[in-house]
């Protein structure tokens, strides 16, 4: 992940660590020349605070931090790291709007990639490949992304169930078996519905893939696999859920591509054959 994005996404910082992060974000061009003592003096923190932060960034030392900053500053096409919640201002013209939205999407996708290790995705794909039945439990606007995933998978012959209202979701969970994979989508996991669904699914020994954010209380639940949203957005105080929506669509598209690629030739042939049946005049 871009170091600046990583600094912005750090949580559970002490007051002094937060002050250091703010200083690095404000003056990266100065930090690259500082010794530990100089950085401590300019940011008004202790040297031990500097190395605690470096550890949280998974860097090997101050030189590694400075190198990462140099790489960031030297990027020819580096986009400005903008406020994900309020990426535009009232003064922006149409060109600025489109460029800033692209930056939001670029940062979101990179953050989503960094939040989900290859091993996590591989374990998830194994669950999807082995499942006889797949149910997706989502709410609000996330349902539309679940339905798009359902459409993609049905095009290659894999049926996906997306129950919409509370009753149908509870009924689907109650009818699930160990042959089912349940994909439970809940960004913050604070509502009672996701917890209730998880409880029913566990009782039926169904396989569970949880898609949630890094601060979600649902992460304490025992599930078979977990994927994480990019956790860059405020849940309420924002213009719109640009980042959350993009992150979820990207995760569903990754699941689809990995499933497709598992038996590429077969899936491609199936899709083309059935399109031909629907549209016999196509060549």
UniProtKB/TrEMBL annotation:
Pfam families: HTH_6, SIS. InterPro entries: Homeodomain-like_sf, HTH_RpiR, RpiR-like, RpiR-like_SIS, SIS_dom, SIS_dom_sf, WH-like_DNA-bd_sf. It comes from the Bacteria. GO terms for biological process: carbohydrate derivative metabolic process. GO terms for molecular function: carbohydrate derivative binding; DNA binding; DNA-binding transcription factor activity. Residues 1-76 form the HTH rpiR-type domain. Keywords: DNA-binding, Transcription, Transcription regulation. PANTHER family: GLUCOKINASE, MURR_RPIR FAMILY TRANSCRIPTIONAL REGULATOR. This is HTH rpiR-type domain-containing protein.
């Amino acid at each position: 992940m871009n170091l600046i994005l990583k600094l912005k996404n750090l949580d559970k910082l002490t007051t002094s660590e937060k002050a250091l992060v703010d200083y690095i974000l404000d003056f990266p061009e100065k930090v690259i020349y500082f010794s530990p003592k100089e950085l401590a003096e300019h940011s008004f923190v202790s040297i031990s605070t500097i190395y605690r932060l470096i550890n949280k960034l998974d860097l090997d030392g101050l030189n590694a931090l400075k190198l990462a900053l140099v790489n960031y500053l030297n990027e020819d096409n580096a986009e400005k790291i903008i406020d994900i919640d309020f990426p535009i201002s009232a003064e922006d013209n149409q060109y600025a709007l489109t460029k800033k939205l692209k930056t939001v999407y670029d940062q979101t996708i990179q953050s989503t990639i960094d939040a989900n290790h290859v091993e996590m995705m591989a374990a998830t794909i194994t669950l999807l490949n082995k499942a006889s039945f797949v149910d997706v439990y989502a709410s609000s606007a996330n349902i539309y992304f679940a339905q798009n995933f359902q459409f993609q998978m049905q095009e290659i012959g894999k049926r996906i169930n997306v129950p919409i209202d509370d009753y149908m979701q509870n009924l689907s969970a109650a009818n699930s078996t160990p042959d089912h994979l349940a994909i439970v989508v809940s960004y913050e996991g604070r509502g009672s519905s996701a917890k209730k669904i998880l409880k029913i699914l566990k009782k039926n020994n169904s396989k569970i893939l949880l898609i949630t954010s890094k601060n979600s209380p649902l992460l304490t639940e025992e599930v078979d696999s977990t994927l994480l949203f990019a956790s860059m957005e405020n849940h309420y105080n924002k213009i719109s859920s640009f980042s959350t929506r993009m992150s979820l669509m990207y995760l569903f598209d990754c699941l689809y591509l990995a499933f497709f690629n598992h038996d590429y030739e077969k899936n491609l042939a199936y899709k083309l054959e059935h399109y031909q049946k629907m549209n016999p005049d196509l060549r």
